[in-house]
Specification:
There is one protein chain. The protein is mainly α and 523 residues long. It has 3 domains: 203 residues, Orthogonal Bundle (Clc chloride channel), CATH 1.10.3080.10; 214 residues, Orthogonal Bundle (Clc chloride channel), CATH 1.10.3080; 75 residues, Regulator of K+ conductance, C-terminal domain (Alpha-Beta Plaits, 2-Layer Sandwich), CATH 3.30.70.1450. 68% of the residues lie in helices and 5% in strands. It is built from 19 helices and 4 strands. Strands 1-4-2-3 form a 4-stranded antiparallel beta sheet. A hairpin with a 2-residue loop joins strand 2 and strand 3. Helix 1 packs across helix 5 and helix 1 runs parallel beside helix 8. The protein is globular and about 75 Å long. The chain starts with a helix and ends with a helix. Keywords: Chloride, Ion transport, Membrane, Transmembrane, Transmembrane helix, Transport. One of its GO terms (cellular component) is plasma membrane. This is ClC family H(+)/Cl(-) exchange transporter.
Length: 523
């Protein structure tokens, strides 16, 4: 008995040492995932910017009326074509963050990742080129997850490591979109995997730094750095009043924004008109806005930057622009075409902050030079209210603007906003989209699902015999993979590095994902 235990301890030490080598390989592969994601997501950003500039040049030049007609029909054809792509490949719909979370959880399998990647890339570029109010960040995240999926297949990565590369690719996608590697790592933890795993954090951060480096190389000038953030010189109690005011009004507006956007999405699906007619309605709105204020289309980021650097002082005009952008964004998201909601939400929050700041200027509470400061704080807080990712929102605004003076106010206002949104029962927007996705008939047909976890040193599973494990109801260990071999679970003592496949009811994935992963890992 003693000799058997001594032999087992020797095997265990060998596996722990081998596991460290495997981790080193995983970190190296995650760097490659970040590089490849950057080389795809950054051109995606470049093409979006190129076509936006081309569209703005066209409308600003005020050509003869007859030139508008062929362009209109060309863009209509583009939207119809992308709608067809989405019908053929439903996973490329929307931003892609809910789909990425579904893949990491195991709800979704990318059966044709390369074809879907190309379709997401092309569809996103075409839709944004038509002027719809969508963002680049969601598609960039999903493009990164496609890259992670492809690398995991080509590199024959173990099932337990696959989700690390998917998460690394997703984080690299956001880093490429904003050149913000730290915020990208936090987004994966807060919104996608929704679980604080050191391995995930490291792989995501490594991939994000590389992808961000590629983005900074292609886009050396960050327009957000041009925004001035002059801190208003207020007393302590005046700051307390200001922060409370911002948190309350942003939370209330966040509730309105979330409810109305989801209402538009659900009503849109019930409209009995053909896809061609729905695309026609969307394009008419996009065209009308382009004729008035072309910078408000394509997500509205250029309009926001213009207002933050040299904005209007007319409150009613800014309010009108914000509401037009808000309604157009809701319609664009409702269409289900490839494009994210992160940047449009950021724009709405910034414009809402501008309105609040201009009112405070009129009341003599702050000076005109402090408007951009309030806008940045509100951008962060509004992301907290709608997306419910406080760390990501706070760090993102600090990273992309380089203004650390807004960090502490964003922490205070963001924290208060998070509390108030809890009281208002605002459900995170991407979580709502995820729940809507998994409640479709296709997902309801799933009966059983297999989760792959990797055993780490010191975890609950480490050293346990499979037969002795206390697992949640209806959970069964189907296989143990060790040293490229499949072992029968019965009588097997688990050691670090084992890849364990646990089968469960499909309806329990979201409830049991975190508990089962935590049993296999030490976090």
């Amino acid at each position: 008995m003693f000799e058997h235990w001594k032999s087992l301890e020797g095997v265990r030490k060998w596996h722990v040492w081998k596991l460290k080598l495997i981790d080193a390989r995983l970190y190296f592969v995650s760097i490659f995932v970040g590089l490849l994601t950057g080389l795809i997501a950054v051109p995606y950003h470049y093409l979006l910017q190129f076509f936006f500039n081309a569209r703005r040049t066209f409308f600003d030049s005020h050509p003869h009326w007859y030139w508008y007609i062929p362009l209109f029909f060309f863009l209509w054809g583009i939207l119809i074509f992308v709608s067809w792509l989405v019908k053929k490949m439903p996973l490329i719909t929307g931003g892609g963050i809910p789909q990425t979370r579904g893949v990491i959880n195991g709800r979704i399998t990318y059966r044709h990742p390369f074809i879907e990647l190309v379709s997401k890339f092309v569809g996103g570029v075409l839709v944004m080129s038509a002027g719809l109010s969508l963002g680049r960040e969601g598609p960039s995240v999903q493009i990164g997850s496609y890259v992670g999926s492809l690398i995991s297949k080509w590199g024959r990565v173990l099932a337990g490591e696959r989700k690390q590369l998917l998460a690394a690719g997703a984080g690299a996608g956001l880093a490429a979109a904003f050149a913000a590697p730290l915020a990208s790592s936090l987004l994966v933890i807060e919104s996608i995997e929704r679980f604080d795993a050191p391995k995930t954090a490291i792989t995501t951060l490594l991939a994000g730094v590389v992808a961000s480096g590629v983005a900074s190389w292609i886009f050396p000038m960050n327009p957000y750095h041009l925004i001035d953030a002059v801190d208003p010189l207020l007393s302590f109690w005046s700051q307390v009043k200001l922060f409370l005011l911002l948190a309350v009004v942003i939370s209330l507006f966040g509730k309105f924004y979330s409810e109305l956007t989801l209402y538009f999405k659900r009503v849109y699906s019930k409209v009995k008109h053909s896809v061609c007619m729905k695309m026609l309605y969307l394009l008419v709105v996009a065209y009308a806005i382009s004729l008035v204020e072309v910078s408000l289309t394509g997500g509205g980021e250029q309009f926001l930057l213009g207002q933050a650097t040299d904005g209007s002082t007319q409150i009613m005009w800014v309010l009108a622009m914000m509401m037009i952008h808000f309604v157009f964004t809701a319609l664009s998201i409702a269409s289900g075409l490839p494009g994210g909601n992160f940047i449009p939400t950021l724009v709405t929050g910034g414009l809402f902050g501008q309105i609040i700041a201009l009112i405070l200027v009129q009341k003599g509470f702050i000076a005109q030079e402090n408007v951009s400061y309030i806008m940045l704080v509100c951008m962060s807080a509004f992301l907290v209210a709608v997306i419910r990712t406080p760390l990501t929102a706070i760090v993102l605004i600090t990273e992309i603007t380089g203004h650390f003076e807004v960090f502490y106010p964003s922490v205070v206002v963001g924290g208060l906003t998070y509390y108030f949104t809890e009281l208002l029962q605002i459900k995170p927007f991407n979580v709502t989209l995820y729940d809507d996705m998994i409640n479709t008939p296709d997902f309801q047909q799933q009966k059983r699902y297999t989760l792959s976890v990797e055993i780490m040193t010191g975890s609950y599973f480490d050293g346990k015999v499979v037969d002795e494990l206390q697992l949640p109801e209806h959970c069964i260990i189907m296989n143990v993979h060790r040293d490229r071999k499949d072992l029968k679970p019965a009588g097997t003592r688990l050691i670090p590095g084992d890849q364990v496949q646990i089968e469960m009811d499909a309806q329990d994935i979201e409830k049991l994902y975190e508990p089962l992963v935590s049993m296999a890992n030490i976090y």
